[in-house]
């Protein structure tokens, strides 16, 4: 069962769309379930995320986590955005069913992928940012082994 917040972000997603000439764009997917998430960042000269948009192909939980993730990073510095975890996305949505936790991982990795793209385009290093996985299915497999 989905929480009211998940349903609200699914039925009324925030920040849907694309940003032309985005500062950074990150696309990640999950080969196992077919979800694909793309996040666009518009970052100003002070490394503050001025605007953020998303396009997601996937289930309702994927749309809801995308929407919430964009809300969590908008107005934040790139360093603060890096700290937005899948757990933070889930908490902000008041939880996700266990079989949909991978959607929050997708949101976290899409943010990281967009930050990575931003850093590469501007020849900067974002402290703590690791090269993102393009398919989070790999990460799920590792987690399920323990």
Could you walk me through the main structural features you see in this protein, from its secondary elements to its overall organization?
- There is one protein chain.
- The C terminus is likely disordered.
- The protein has six helices and three strands, in the order αβββααααα.
- The chain is globular, with a radius of gyration of 14 Å.
- Helix 2 crosses helix 5 and helix 4 packs across helix 5.
- It is an alpha+beta fold.
- The two termini are 26 Å apart.
- The protein has a three-stranded antiparallel beta sheet.
* Alpha carbon gyration radius: 14 Å
Measured as a percent range, the helix fraction is 40-55%
Provide the structure class.
Answer: alpha+beta
Enumerate the spans where pLDDT stays under 50 for 5 or more consecutive residues.
139-146
Strand content: 15-25%
Strand order in the sheet with the most strands: 1-2-3
| Mean pLDDT score | 91
**Based on CA inertia axes, which overall geometry fits?**
globular
Q: What string, H for helix and E for strand, traces the elements in order? A: HEEEHHHHH
Number of helices: 6
Distance between the termini: 26 Å
Number of strands: 3
Sheet of most strands: 3 strands, antiparallel
């Amino acid at each position: 069962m989905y929480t009211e917040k998940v349903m609200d972000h699914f039925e009324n997603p925030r920040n849907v769309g694309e940003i032309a000439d985005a500062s950074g764009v990150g696309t990640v997917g999950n080969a196992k379930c077919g979800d694909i998430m793309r996040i666009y960042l518009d970052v100003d000269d002070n490394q503050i995320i001025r605007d953020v948009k998303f396009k997601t192909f996937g289930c309702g939980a994927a749309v809801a986590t995308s929407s919430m993730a964009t809300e969590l990073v908008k107005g934040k510095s790139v360093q603060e955005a890096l700290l937005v975890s899948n757990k933070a996305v889930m908490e902000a949505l008041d939880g996700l069913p266990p079989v949909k936790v991978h959607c929050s991982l997708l949101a976290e990795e899409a943010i990281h992928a967009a930050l990575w793209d931003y850093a590469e385009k501007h020849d900067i290093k974002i402290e703590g940012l690791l090269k993102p996985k393009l398919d989070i299915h790999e990460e799920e497999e590792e987690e399920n082994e323990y």
